[in-house]
Amino acid sequence: MQSVHANTHTSKRRRRFTTETLFRLLSQNNRLDDFRAYSTTENDQTSSYTNGFTLENDLRNIWELLSQMIRKRLLNHEPCLLPELGAFVLIDHPSKDNLPIKEPFFVLDTTFARRHRLSRIKKPNLSSALSLSLQANGKSTHIEPNTTLSSFNMQTLDYVSLQNQSGLTREQLMTAIAQIFAIIDKEIHPYGFCDLEFPQLGHFRILFGLATFEFSETFSTEFKLTFVKNDSTTSNDK
User: Fold this and answer.
1) Which residues of 178-189 are buried (b: 16+ CB within 10 A; e: fewer)?
2) Nearest to 72, CA basis, from 187, 162, 179
3) How distant is the alpha carbon of residue 73 from its chain centre?
4) Per residue in 5-50, pLDDT tens?
5) Angle at CA 140, nearest 5°, toward 139 and 144?
6) How far apart are the C-alpha atoms of 89 and 133, rounded to whole Å?
7) Distance CA 42, CA 163 (A)
């Protein structure tokens, strides 16, 4: 008979959700789907989704492509909406000389935060979500309290580009993306630990119910250099 301590330890360990956990669960789910498809279709040994390609490798590739797309958008000073999860935006951050400096910031979707009972980080220089500025269609708009990010007319994922880069069909791509975010939605727990790595961008983390996105030092340096390049270009144009 297991002790209460052992059960508690197992429960805590089960609540650790990382990128590797994500892909392991995706692989397990799809192996089960393949088994069901094989059981019902004698002449077809693969499901309509797997269709003979290496499932886990393709899912990892899609995740990396998603990360690269967000990264490129931010380096071009463009926001990017991740359906159901949140948005990567640019905010004005006051500097020592009172001149606003833009910096990347991740805004967790209100509906997602409520569903999982998560808290969202408050920037020290920002009084509320109303202070966050989104650049939508070249115009500055604001996040009103309790607003769902998907209601903004801002650019979401470029599915055509993702399809071309991944080599998947439209149906396979949409199924894969839906599976990825369905697992994330299912496994997020306010009292668990989450650390999802977005390659070459940063980490989405949940600790003690607080959801944050920590941009990597490499990306932060790249982002700062975009302003140096812009200043240089402006000076040459004068």
Assistant:
1) ebbeebbeebbb
2) 162
3) 13
4) 444 444 444 478 999 999 999 888 877 555 444 444 444 444 434 4
5) 130
6) 8
7) 30
Which distant-in-sequence residues (6+ apart) come within 8 Å of 39 by Cβ? none
- List beta partners, residue 203: 197, 214
Q: Which band of pLDDT confidence, cut at 50, 70 and 90, is reported for residue 200?
A: very high
- Length, in residues, of the chain: 238
Sheet holding 202-207, edge to edge: 16-18, 193-198, 202-207, 210-215, 119-120
Task: Please give the full DSSP string across 72-127, using - where no structure is assigned.
Answer: HHHHTT--EEETTTEEEEEEEEE-TTS-EEEEEEEEE-HHHHHHTT-EE---TT--
Cα 171 to Cα 146: distance, rounded to the nearest angstrom: 33
Tens digits of per-residue pLDDT, 92-125? 766 677 666 788 888 888 888 889 999 886 554 4
Contacts (Cβ under 8 Å, ≥6 apart) of 76: 226
Q: How far apart are CA 120 and CA 110, in angstroms?
A: 9
What's the CA gap between 43 and 65, in Å, rounded?
Answer: 34
